[in-house]
Amino acid sequence: MRTYINNINNLEDGSIIEIDGWVQEIRKIKKLLFLIVRDNTGSVQVTVKDNMVKNYDSIYNISRESVIKVSGKLNKKSISKSGVEILANEIIILNTAETPLPMGVIDLVDVDFDTRLNNRFIDLRKPENLIIFKFESELLFGIREYMNKNNFIEVHTPKIVAAATEGGADLFPVQYFEKRAYLNQSPQLYKEILMSSGFDRVFEVGPAFRAEKENTVRHLNEFTSIDIEMSFSDDETVMRMLENAIAYSVNRADSILGKELKGLGYSIEEVRPPFPRIEYSELINYLNDNGFKLNFGDDFSPEAMKFVSKKYNGFYFITKWPKDLRPFYTMPDDTNRNVTRSFDLQLRDIEVCSGAQRIHDYNMLENSFNEKGLNKNNFEFYIKAFKYGMPPHAGWGLGLERLVMNLLNLSNVRESTLFPRDRSRLSP
RNA sequence: GCCCCGAUAGUGUAGCGGCCUAUCAUACAGGCCUGUCGAGCCUGUGACGUGGGUUCAAAUCCCGCUCGGGGCGCCA
Asked: Which residues bind L-aspartate (predicted)?
């Protein structure tokens, strides 16, 4: 029976065990050879002596990254550095790897990110890359659990759509039989329709597509969006839901993977809500007091956000954004009609989430379309849901890759994406 | 879309008009070696993105193209 390598320590010294994995390292000394074998949980030394296995010659000539099955005796008093080894008495070569490798898994040379992405299947064999996606998986599990406990219904809305979500031109067109369709840039409109349907609380984890020609370390043309929408709710309520969901899932993932993460050079800080809330206009003033020249209505430049993140390290909300910077479905503020009941969640200098109280009144929504210069006829399927009993609602959308990137302090969002899609990359 | 920058063995680099028959590391192949663990030692294989131009001479200078990186706009 197969043992995963991280379980070896739980077994008794001298037991006969079997592992499956990749040959990561080979050290040869004529009639003795050491293989470091890796699976997705860790790696261990396998010691092979010429009189112990019958196919010694072929094992002696095995290439790195070949796949093998090893049976042998566990020696927990090994003089190897880890103190543990497996004394092999049978090794089956399941598949050999060609040489040389397109890139090394443990080589002592740098590899360009482009080369790594071109050979992502090998790149992901590196434990420090695999852990990013283990972390993402745990994080998402925690968020699901949190949402579930709070009575959210997980939904899946269409990704092939007929109309623009926010009226922009940043969509990928697709041919849908005889019609022109698009890849959805956000589940926004469908989440809102479900509020009218009485689902009350929904969340969705799914892809979002943006045909924007950015070329930055924080943009992807396909990313994973975690979205919620909540009826009979307001912006403050969904902000609390957000900070609590993040705190719960991050702290949970860290308690499970923290040790492994630390061993691979990542460290996660404990997340403690509530997060600071700063109004947009406060931030404009703060920046202008510090040498920036911003007007009300301007968006913050990356440089400005870097400056702000020196003051607010960690998570913080920027609230009450001007109307012009927000989509048509955003609820204006009751007291100041120039601003909206909206928020962005920042982690240091990067935006990871944005949300708002939404407009639920049909006439107000119609006006908003006009103000934004959008043709409401293109949104008939959406706007109809507002005529026959739409409850007040609020929600947000959280960028999964960006969240993981920032939590782990990665320098590029592509690091937290298995197979990134960007301005020039469509493969693998 | 705009602005910078880059492209040399499988990988990562040095070289930036003639000392280049191109450096070093790593990988790979072969050899020595019964306890390695960044194993060590010896031998070997392997590269100037592409098309023009300048020059007696181009990896090196100039122009186009292709591919890539970073920044900005924008945003998750």
From this structure: 166, 210, 354, 358
- pLDDT average per 10 residues of sequence, chain A (428 residues): 93 94 93 93 93 90 95 91 91 93 89 92 94 96 97 95 67 89 91 96 94 87 95 96 96 95 91 94 91 88 90 92 91 90 93 95 92 84 93 96 94 93 87
Protein-contacted bases of chain B (C-beta within 7 A): 1-2, 10-13, 25-30, 32-40, 67-76
Nucleotide nearest to A306 (CA to C1'): B71
**Concatenated DSSP letters of A357-426:** EBP--HHHHHHHHHHTT--GGGGHHHHGGGTS-PPPEEEEEEEHHHHHHHHTT-S-GGGG-SS---SS--
Residue A109 lies in a domain: no
State whether A208 and A308 are in the same domain. yes
Last residue of a domain, one of A95, A112, A141: A95
How many distinct structural domains can be found in chain A?
2
Q: Give, in Å, how far the C1' of B41 lies from the CA of A265.
A: 34
Q: Which nucleotide is nearest to A305 (CA to C1')?
A: B75
Residues of A from 298 to 337 whose C-beta is within 7 A of strand B: which are they?
299-303, 305, 325
A334 inside domain? yes
Distance from C-alpha of A399 to C-alpha of A316, rounded to nearest angstrom: 15
Question: What is the rounded CA–CA span in Å between residue A321 and residue A304?
Answer: 16
pLDDT in tens, A208-222: 998 888 888 899 999
Residue A402 assigned ligand-binding role? yes
Q: Which of A249, A402, A414, A416 is catalytic?
A: A402
Q: Residue A56 CA to chain centroid, in angstroms? A: 44
Q: How far is the CA of A74 from the C1' of B10 (A)?
A: 36
